[in-house]
Write a structure and sequence with these properties.
- With about 100 residues, the chain is mainly alpha-helical.
- The protein has one domain.
- Helix content is about 45%, strand content about 0%.
- Helix 2 crosses helix 3 and helix 2 crosses helix 4.
Length: about 100
């Protein structure tokens, strides 16, 4: 789980334990476990390649175009699996801490 305050505390851990789960908390900030960081990296790279063409008037359109061209459903699934999320069609690798 992430470090949201609502995820911490005895009631959460007890409920999970009753159902046979062990609670593992992620580090406070762990970009290697945050799949959105992978997508942001790809998007920023695409926008850097188009930097010369960016203007105040077309920046939103260029961001939308970069998202459509660069962020595919397959990429999102692969990034999520890489970050230890359970994604159908990918081997599950539970996160066991650093």
């Amino acid at each position: 789980m992430d470090n949201a305050s609502s995820h911490h505390g005895a009631p959460i851990e007890e409920t999970c334990a009753e159902r046979g789960h062990v609670v593992l908390y992620r580090p406070a900030y762990s970009p290697h476990l945050a799949w959105i960081e992978h997508q942001n990296s790809v998007l920023k790279s695409a926008l850097r390649r188009r930097y010369a063409a960016l203007t105040h008037e077309n920046v939103v359109g260029e961001i939308e175009r970069a998202i459509r061209e660069c962020i595919t459903p397959e990429m999102v699934r692969a990034s999520a699996a890489h970050c230890h999320y359970n994604v159908p069609g990918y081997p599950y690798r539970p996160w066991l801490g650093d």
